[in-house]
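Example 3.2
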Amino acid sequence: MAATMTHSQEQTLDAPLLRSDFQRDGFVVIRNFLPAAEFQLLTDNVNRFIRDVVPTLTDRDAFYDDRTKPETLKVGTEQGGIQCLFL
C-alpha cells in the first residue's frame, strides 16, 4: 500500500518508507500535499500545457501511443525554449 499523509497528521514524511513504496509500486501517494487552491493551479497549468504546448512539439519531444489521441501522451522531454508550466 502506498504511503499517505494528511495535513491533519502531525508527522513528517518518512522518506525511507516513501522510497520503499516507490520501489515496490512504481509510485507513491501523498494525500493533501498541496492546499486545494495550489493543487487547482497546478492542475490548470498542466492541462494548459497539454492543450496549448504539447501539440506544437515534435514527435521527438512528445511521446504518444497514438498521436491522434492526446490522452495517450506518455512523457515529454525538456527542450530549450519550452516555458515552465508555472509561468
